[in-house]
Specification:
This protein is mainly alpha-helical. Helix 2 crosses helix 7, helix 2 crosses helix 10 and helix 5 packs across helix 8. The strands form 2 sheets. It has a two-stranded parallel ribbon. The protein has a two-stranded parallel sheet with strand order 3-4. It is elongated. It has 12 helices and 4 strands; from the N terminus they run H-E-H-H-E-H-E-H-H-H-H-E-H-H-H-H.
């Protein structure tokens, strides 16, 4: 995102953006959403981190602030709730149509059952999307047929944006808070952080009219370690299923032919036994 790149330009070397959250703390966020972790986990996760931006961390800004009570908070805003909502719809459209674990492959509906990592990613993303939009956009069907897509409520988008901003401004001490639009450039940001204004232009990563910025960062996330790990798990499961199916077919054919001279009752019994044998490895894949 623009803010993550701006922080790095200003000398904050260890910045956790969307990509880093999923690469380093995917399982931790699963624990958080499951309710099996305490807020102290945020301190463990971000003790040595200079700045955190983007989801899912920004959704837990209040928990993080309680663990780091002296932290400075920057609330980034758009020109209007409608502008933010339109940008989010474009991002969600790309997300739901391009992610290998939510669409694009004949086996996509099975991916959460084929890969533990993919199941965790889907679980965390579902909670993120519900918090941001009030909907589980991963479950939305055709997102290309209309604008906004069917199943996307612009009312929910706008309400979430307004509620989030109002909560931050009401609860964060004023001396620790900067309400900031990236269009304002380096000035307000550098003054708030006590940094010199850099010579290079302020990064403009989130440009809604082209595939860049946040949308590009999502594409980057898809080739990160956790994503590649999940893809390997999926391919391994599919190969195992294929091998099991072929082996089962051969074994079943052999058993049927071997007992062809027996009575129909014996043949049925043999086929039933072979199917029972075949089902065991298939069931193990989906556990």
């Amino acid at each position: 995102t623009s803010m993550a790149k701006a922080f790095r330009v200003l000398g904050y070397n260890n910045v956790h953006d969307h990509t880093e959250h999923f690469s380093y703390n995917l399982e931790n966020y699963q624990r958080i959403y499951e309710g099996t972790a305490t807020e102290e986990l945020f301190r463990e996760m971000y003790e040595d981190v200079d700045a955190v931006t983007d989801t899912p961390a920004c959704l837990f800004w209040d928990s993080i602030l309680r663990e780091f009570p002296d932290a400075k908070v920057i609330l980034t805003v758009r020109d209007s709730a409608n502008a933010w909502s339109t940008s989010m719809v474009n991002t969600c459209r790309y997300f739901t149509t391009q992610n290998w674990y939510s669409g694009g492959h004949w086996y996509s509906p099975l991916v959460p059952y084929l890969s533990k990592t993919a199941a965790t990613v889907r679980y965390v993303y579902s909670h993120i999307c519900y918090y941001i939009t009030g909907m589980d956009i991963i479950q939305v069907g055709d997102v290309t047929s209309s604008d906004p897509p069917i199943g996307y409520s612009m009312i929910c988008f706008k309400n979430r944006y307004t509620q989030h901003n109002a909560a931050v401004q009401a609860l964060v001490p004023s001396h620790q808070l900067l309400v900031y639009n990236v269009k304002e450039g380096w000035g307000p940001l550098c003054e708030f952080l006590g940094k010199e204004v850099p010579e290079e232009p302020f990064p403009n990563e989130n440009v809604s009219h082209k595939k860049s910025g946040y949308v590009a960062s999502i594409h980057e996330v898809l080739v990160m370690d956790y994503s590649l790990r999940a893809e390997r798990e999926v391919k391994r499961s599919l190969c195992w299923m294929l091998m099991t199916t072929v082996t089962s077919g051969i074994a079943g054919y052999w058993l049927v032919n071997r007992h062809a001279a027996r009575s129909p009752t014996l043949i049925v019994g043999s086929v039933a036994d072979s199917l029972k044998w075949v089902s065991k490895p298939l069931l193990s894949i989906f556990r």
